[in-house]
Specification:
Chain A: It comes from Cytobacillus stercorigallinarum. Chain A: This is XdhC family protein. The complex is a heterodimer of chains A (126) and B (265). Chain A is of the alpha+beta class. Chain A has one domain (3-125). Chain A has four helices and five strands; from the N terminus they run H-E-E-E-H-E-H-E-H. Chain A has helices spanning 3-17, 60-73, 85-88, 110-125, and strands at residues 21-31, 41-45, 50-51, 77-83, 97-107. In chain A, a hairpin with a 4-residue loop joins strand 2 (41-45) and strand 3 (50-51). Chain B has two domains: 2-94, no CATH class; 99-248, Rossmann fold, CATH 3.40.50. In chain B, the strands form two sheets. In chain B, strands 8-7-6-9-10-11 form a six-stranded parallel beta sheet, sandwiched between helices. A five-stranded antiparallel beta sheet of chain B has the order 3-2-1-5-4, with helices on both faces. The two termini of chain B are 33 Å apart. Classes of the chains: A alpha+beta (126), B alpha/beta (265).
């Protein structure tokens, strides 16, 4: 795992420690050429602040907006980006291809941590 | 929703402890299956369940296969559940960072260790001279102060240890090479020209060390990619690039004219 991606993992641990809600975006499928491959991650906080890269810089802002919604709805979604070089060339987007991004809420709020503990206890008892 | 946190937390813990793990997430399926997760761990029971034995068994066997590969890639795959319906599963893979172990703490080792650390490798410098092998010179690295005769007791080599031999001392290089060849290390780069490599190997042969062709194929000497490197920094780039190429099983030439940038695994 690259250093930059390990920073994403540290950022998740920080959110967990501080019990802050956040969302994780992960590249799960790439068709054609892409700057970032499957497994690339970006963490987004409730204000849209980000850590990590999931593309060469052309998708981060949009994914961060979607992630803010995901934090509110608490439901994971898959966002698909078709990046046609012919169409977007003029915009300087150097990442042609289709990219599928899984965006999920990581709800480390105090209440949820209790619920998880309950769940863990139930499993341990089983 | 809440159940998802458990496999995900197990995954985070595995990364924290540098343990290999595969996080499997159902991304395409009926709504009842979607987002279910299993964290597959090496030599430990998995965490979480897909609540579908056929699907889970198929996914776990893929996860196991991935952890057996030297450089496994995360990917999405279509599997079938017990009702023979297609289910999309994303396999995220964590394996500990490869280690670059540099023997010789000379000035030319400094950029090698620096660039390797910047590329995310764990770095270790081995040299008995604490005057050279110190934190000031190698702030990113773990340092082992040891003489070649103590290597066996002080140093652990694995199949994820990439070795660079640059002692600038032919006797030490010989002893280091002998030690390295006795391990599972996939890459053993030795600084110096071909004639020096031959001299070292001839010496080892005379001392009764016989190595198989497979052993010898791991030796890269002259070390590095052919980029015409001259300065320590350029040579370091050439060495670190070669280590990356060996790890990803790429050839290391120009991409110009290539059909693909990345090889399929």
């Amino acid at each position: 795992m690259m250093n930059e991606q390990l920073q994403v993992i540290s950022a998740i641990q920080e959110c967990k420690a501080e019990k802050l809600p956040c969302a994780l975006a992960t590249v799960i499928k790439v068709k054609g050429s892409a700057y970032r491959k499957e497994g690339a991650k970006m963490l987004i906080d409730a204000d849209g602040g980000t850590v990590g890269l999931i593309s060469g810089g052309c998708l981060e802002a949009d994914v961060a907006e979607v992630a803010k919604e995901v934090i509110k709805t608490k439901t994971p979604i898959i966002k698909t980006y078709h990046l046609d070089e012919e169409e977007v060339w003029g915009l300087g987007l150097g990442c042609p291809g289709t990219v599928f991004i899984y965006i999920e809420p990581l709800m480390y709020t105090p209440q949820n941590i209790e619920e998880v503990d309950e769940c863990a206890k139930a499993i341990a008892a089983f | 929703m809440q159940k998802q946190l458990l496999p995900f937390d197990a995954w985070l813990e595995a990364i924290d402890q540098q343990q290999p793990a595969v996080l499997m997430t159902i991304t395409e399926a009926s709504s009842s299956q979607k987002n279910k997760r299993v964290c597959y761990l090496e030599n430990q029971p998995s965490i979480g369940s897909f609540h579908d034995q056929v699907l889970e068994a198929a996914a776990k066997s893929i996860a196991q296969e991935k952890l057996g590969q030297s450089n496994p890639k995360p990917e999405s795959l279509l599997l079938q559940d017990e009702n023979k319906l297609d289910v999309g599963v994303f396999f995220d893979v964590f394996v500990p960072s490869p280690t670059l172990m540099v023997f010789g703490a000379g000035h030319d080792a400094i950029p090698v260790v620096k660039y390797a650390a910047e590329c995310g490798m764990k770095t270790i410098v081995v040299d008995q001279r604490s005057l050279y092998n110190n934190e000031e010179r190698f702030p990113h690295a773990e340092r082992i102060i040891a003489r070649p005769e103590n290597f066996t007791e002080c140093i652990r080599l694995t199949n994820r240890t990439y070795i660079v031999v640059m002692n600038h001392h032919i006797e030490k290089d010989k002893q280091t090479l002998k030690f390295a060849l006795s391990s599972q290390a996939p890459y053993i780069g030795v600084l110096g020209p071909k004639s020096r490599r031959i001299k070292i190997l001839d010496q080892l042969y005379l001392e009764g060390c016989h190595f198989t062709n497979q052993d010898l194929q791991r030796i890269h000497s002259p070390i590095g990619l052919d980029i015409g490197a001259v300065s320590s920094e350029e040579i370091a780039i050439s060495i670190v690039a070669e280590v990356i190429a060996v790890r990803t099983r790429h050839k290391g030439g120009f991409l110009q004219g290539a059909e693909f940038i990345h090889q399929s695994p």
